[in-house]
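hey can u check if this looks right to u? its 70 residues, i copy pasted from the old doc so theres a chance i mangled smth
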Amino acid sequence: MFERAMEAARRRGEARARDVARRLAEAAAAEAPAGVRVEASDEGVRLSGRGLARRMVTEPALRWLIGRVR
């Protein structure tokens, strides 16, 4: 019985984490600069795009977005 309760709690926690990541990704996508793709993943929220590392240094809007997503 305890194992079933633990499994149910694990599933609810994982579902909640996926929902939070999805909502964060949607909010970030709405504010992301052009050329930056935002998607929810198993690890959280993933940002991708051409020259993203360089753009993080030169674009304050992108740094601000990353700070908000965390």
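The chain has three helices and two strands.
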